[in-house]
Amino acid sequence: MTSLADLTTMRVGGPARSMVTATTEDELIEAVRAVDDAGEPLLVVGGGSNLLVADEGFAGTAVLVRTTGIQVPDASACGGVTVTVAAGEMWDDVVARAVAEGWSGIESLSGIPGATGATPVQNVGAYGQEVAQTIASVRVWDRTEQRVRTMFAADLAFSYRHSVLKESMVGPDAHAGAVTPRHIVLSVTFSLRPTELSQPIGYAALADGLGVELGARVPLAEARDAVLHQRRNRGMVLDADDHDTWSCGSFFTNPILPAQQYAELVARAAERLGPTSPVPPQYPATEGNVKTSAAWLIDKAGFTKGHRMPGPAALSTKHTLALTNRGSARATDVLALAREVRDGVREAFGVTLVNEPVLVGLTL
């Protein structure tokens, strides 16, 4: 029996009761239908980069999405480049192909682990780009309506690390302890731009690394290399020999706070850190709200890089937002660390951090 730990980047978790591999779209639909017809709990596994699975495993069927294929139905210079990608294609391979072909729009999303089918679910983003900026449509199997649907960008209601696909998750299942998707992503269609230059650089650290001003454009390959360099420095590019990369990436999302709550955060930070200390970072968000930095809150609450080292689970030595498996961690170790950090930040600043990974058989 295959342990789900072998299929996730955190490398923890027990086995699924049963497991099915789907290598074609038809196989994927049939596998999901069979699970539903049998009344079994369903866990969909792509690249496994956003899953934290209980040590007891999953009391249902795990469907492994291993579909492949990249189609380019339109590459006109005027209309842009339309690229349709099977859900099981590894995301960074897609970005590498786009950079090599001269298709811009996703170059700043280099090095992100996982499969393409997961990217629209939580609106994957990094270094000033989000997939919402380039996704034209997503084909899904709708388990409720029992049909294939095409959902366009406007239907997906993208926001920070969120979409209708994520909103429509069902669960947690009473027996298996996992949320389960209503919509199974079959393929994602992107609208990219035929240009050898990147889109305007919108992230200060990336611009500094490239030696350019914010808003500048650079050759696609240079942008990709700079992003990979930034991610490696933070332990965010998978490396079997580097336990800082045995993680789910950023474990907590950046909080989006009403303006009044952000003002209260500023006051609490000044009281805790001193009136001359820097204020909590603030970034644009929806009207009336402020987005701040989870990593800043974690660090200023006293959880520094490597916190809990040399234990089985610890914060990354490179990036406080990553909870890592130091080689022998169990899911319970990771969850205990997550609770410690969440509770410590809440006590220090009155902000409750929210986990980004999907918890299977676990509750934070």
Automatic annotation (TrEMBL):
Chief location bin: cytoplasm
Compartment(s) of residence: Cytoplasm
Requisite cofactors: FAD
EC top class named in words: oxidoreductase
Role description: Cell wall formation.
Entry's family note: Belongs to the MurB family.
Protein name: UDP-N-acetylenolpyruvoylglucosamine reductase
Species this chain originates from: Ornithinimicrobium faecis
